[in-house]
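Structure tokens please, single chain.
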Amino acid sequence: MAQICPWYTIRRPNHRGHHHPSKNKSPAGRNRLHATANLRRNSTTTPNRTHIPPTHTHERTTLSPNQPHLPLRRDADLRQGRRRHHPPVHPLIRELFLLILLYSVRKGTGVSSDKLTEILWSDKSTAAARNNRSVNIAKLKALLDRLGNVQLSKDTGYWKIDLDPSTTHLDYQSYTAIVKDRRQLSKQKINELADITRRGSFLSNIEFEWLDEYKSDTSNEIIDTYLHFARTVPIKDDPDFLVRLANYISYFDAVNEEAIAIKCKALATMGKHSLAKTAFDTFTRQYKTIYGEDFGRDFQQVVESWPDPGTHP
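Here you go.
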């Protein structure tokens, strides 16, 4: 899978091959996600993988709103030395695509025409907004029709992007399936989630006002999912895995108190007391940098604060 920060990659097999397919303690705690976002964003990179070597037996189409074009090149074109030129996609078309896609996956039903107008053309008259919406929907549909496996429809009265599950894979869809069903969480599922989230924050290079809610919800869901699973794993059973889990949480919330408690306790269980103390000291410095005050608890209190499910009274 191409490692693309926005979390969505679309692949299509050709005739020669087949693709197989925090919980924080207070409302203020959740706001820490926003306070620490910039600490992580500067280190986030978004690799671009638009080149397809001629030896591949799969056609790959990658859609990324961070790229100025929607690359639609085919393996056959590259093998024959031809490079098709595609005109740049207007930023509004990319925003429209992203808006409909997220509503389709997150809400399940898609997005209404009125909602599209409210978000994208609220500054225009009713007639002008309707005209702009129709023109841009037509342009987006034409682009998606060229892919063949991504369709824009309005069968239910809502604009929706439909993906062929036999030929497409959407990272955001996989992420949603994991975080929405915590009863089925397993170490394998957590590792799959980590494979997605380690590529970077969700749509970190795109800034739209309507997108803020999606970003916030995504960060909170990721943290809550990791913490939910961590509470089911006895420290002594797999302390190394819990250290990694704590690091995954800290990526989205650098001063998450439960994450540092997990990490310190797991490291101490492995006998790595010096590393545990160093991790705690780093955490307290970051906490003071962000909030301008001392953390308020010492190392031992933090270690004892994490309820190890493997410990019975």
